[in-house]
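So, can you check?
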Amino acid sequence: MDLIELSEKEIRAENRKSSKGNQLKWLHSDTWYKADYAGYEGLAEYVVSQLLRYSNLESSEFVVYQTEEIRYKRQILKGCSSSNFLSAGNQLLTLERMFQNAFGESLYEMVFRISDVKERLRFLVEMTERMTGKKDTGQYFVKILTVDALFLNEDRHLHNVAMIADSSGSYAYCPIFDNGASLLSDTTLDYPMGGDVYELIGEVQSKTVSIDFDEQLDAAEELYGQVLHFMFGEREIREMLDQEKYYEKNVKDRVFDVLMSQKRKYSYLFA
């Protein structure tokens, strides 16, 4: 097994905020590395990205992660790696930061002043289009919210939805990335190993325009249509987990149970 050795000088600060805490992150040879912080985030990143290959997303629409073992100082850490998707001169701007720069207010607070979930999402889409000039933002949000619902990503707040800005001021959608808070990965605080998987699934809350995954996904599909579907089953899940070489069997078994439960719940998303 390969072990990547990373140094303190390669650590990169994270401008995007996370409700789950800040992982150690390094940029080494144009590859990003992230160490697990609260559980098995690296495995979650790997699993979600590998299963997105079995969807109708283009390969450019999501970031592919691999699990890693990282040597940092005197520690051996589990985590993941991904290629840097930003070209020279481009920068990542979160929707929250863009809105605060443009209007001097919090987009998240503005969205949640609206009582109706569907109208929250409509407002969010329209403001994003106003700030970026993009015209198909609704479908982009459907894709994000579908991924979050299926894989239980509990950390997609508006500090964690971003656009790519180039030097000319033009914007492009970010590929779907940063899914480490999926699949009950936080075993330190919220979803301890040994807990009943199905009870824990019921405790997970979303953050984009509602605390309920189904509520925000229903709003997105009603406004902008169902645009994402999947083509994986038990065989693909087992093969993908078997190929992973760093995480323990009990962790993989739990991830398998979560995935099969979610696949049953969202069966309409599968071809």
About this structure: The mean pLDDT is 95.
